Amino acid sequence: MLKLISEACKSGARKSKAAQLLGLTIRTLQRWSKNGLLDSRKGSRADPGNKLSDDEKTRIANVLESPEFAESNPNQIVPILAYQGIYLGSESTMYRILSPSFRPNVKIYYNYSLLYF
Q: How many C-alpha atoms does 13 have within 13 Å on its Cβ side?
């Protein structure tokens, strides 16, 4: 795109008009000329402070797969563990750990009749 605009400018066109034809602003052209076409935006690179460690994820997965909770869903498991004074994570965290996207090589069969009681 920068080549197209530079060719247009060499032919006598104004840079702002050439940019306008391409749907760009003059400021965008200035930024691209200076920095190149790379995206220079900076997002947050820090992990959240409450991110689960691998050990915590493994512990939750082990509890979810244990024979005691094999027929239960996280909606039932969390209150049982809370009654015992154990907090491993929220229901949504447990569902996230159960999801195939979290553990692609593990096939889990849900008992959907237990999801709604």
A: 14
Only one residue has tokens 């052209």, namely 29
What spatial distance separates the first Cα and last Cα of the chain, rounded to whole Å? 60
| 3-state helix/strand/coil string of the chain | CHHHHHHHHHCCCCHHHHHHHCCCCHHHHHHHHHHCCCCCCCCCCCCCCCCCCHHHHHHHHHHHHCHHHCCCCHHHHHHHHHHCCCCCCCHHHHHHHHCCCCCCCCCCCCCHHHCCC
Q: Kindly list the distances between the CA atom of residue 58 and the CA atoms of 31, 36, 49, 53, 82, in Å, as whole numbers in the listed order.
A: 46, 44, 18, 9, 19
pLDDT digits (tens, 9 = 90+) for 21-66: 888 888 888 888 887 777 667 777 788 888 889 899 989 988 888 8
At residue 13, what is the residue type? Answer: A
d(CA 8, CA 78): 66
Note the pLDDT tens digit of each residue in 68-92: 887 888 889 999 999 999 999 999 9
